[in-house]
Specification:
alpha+beta; 8-stranded mixed sheet; 7 helices
Length: 275
């Protein structure tokens, strides 16, 4: 423990003074469905703004509150910056499109990965995966994330390293292996592939992805700088990392940390994303 440490009870609510906001709740599952579709559309627009879209790769899903055995996902090939709630498609456990917009084209890899995670993790509702530049660069190193910064503490003992690349995910086995390796954690580095995050809300899932991407970038920079000096980076001690995780790594923290990005994107998009 640092000799300068002055620990009090950890938690996101302890990090603020005043009435702390919470995710909305719904009595009507149909109303909740529309809200989640709108938030998912915003999530894709945020991903696009951060450069996480490349060609047609990448996907974010959310479990349907009316029929939890199904999930909503982006239609294959529709530009993320233009995505609206009405464009999303709903997919069942067999990979069939049961509802959605005009473009009813499903990315098979999205189904194989996300369906396996949703089945294995009834505690989460959203899953994100993309081939972001720093995430996929880090994924070639054959290692997990080091806990070297306060932001990286969000992933302390909460990130898996899937150290196998089975090729493009067109069959169920690779998706099942990814879900098994993810286990109860909120994030995974997929070897030679990219990043995957999940959360109870779309907001937390999206924020964990953005944060993990930046942690990968920070570690790539820090490792290179340290190696250039003939040394290595300084790691945060387990006690401090665990203490910090309880505040910055909680589900509530993920949801709240995403709020500025979602508020800004909603303002920039106007009413278009809700259609």
């Amino acid at each position: 423990m640092s000799p300068h440490s002055t620990k009090t009870k950890p938690g996101m609510e302890q990090a603020a003074s005043g009435q702390f906001p919470r995710p909305p709740t719904f009595k009507d599952p149909l109303e909740e469905r529309q809200y989640l579709k709108e938030r998912l559309a915003l999530g894709f627009r945020i991903f696009a703004k951060n450069g996480f879209d490349e060609g047609v790769a990448g996907h974010i899903t959310v479990r349907d509150p009316v029929d939890p055995t199904t999930f909503w996902v982006n239609p294959f090939g529709v530009a993320w910056p233009l995505l609206r709630a009405s464009d999303l498609i709903r997919v069942n456990e067999e990979g069939a499109i049961v509802e959605g917009g005009e473009v009813r084209l499903l990315n098979v890899a999205a189904y194989m990965i996300h369906s396996a995670v949703h089945k294995a993790r009834p505690d989460i509702n959203a899953v994100a995966h993309s081939h972001s530049i720093y995430g996929r660069s880090f994924a070639t190193l054959g290692r997990n994330l080091d806990i070297t910064t306060q932001d990286a503490c969000s992933f302390y003992n909460d990130i898996a390293h899937y150290d196998s690349f089975g090729g493009i995910v067109l069959g169920p086995e690779e998706g099942q292996h990814i879900a098994e390796k993810l286990g109860p954690k909120k994030a995974a580095i997929l070897a030679n592939h990219g990043l995957l995050t999940c959360g109870k809300t779309i907001e937390s899932c999206v924020f964990w992805f953005m944060s993990l991407e930046r942690c990968c970038q920070a570690q790539l920079l820090a490792d290179a700088a340290a190696a250039g000096r003939g040394g290595e980076t300084v790691k945060i001690a387990d006690e401090e990392a665990e203490y910090t995780y309880k505040t910055v790594g909680s589900e509530l923290s993920g949801w709240f940390s995403a709020k500025p990005a979602f508020d800004l994107m909603a303002r920039e998009s106007g009413e278009d994303y809700k259609q």
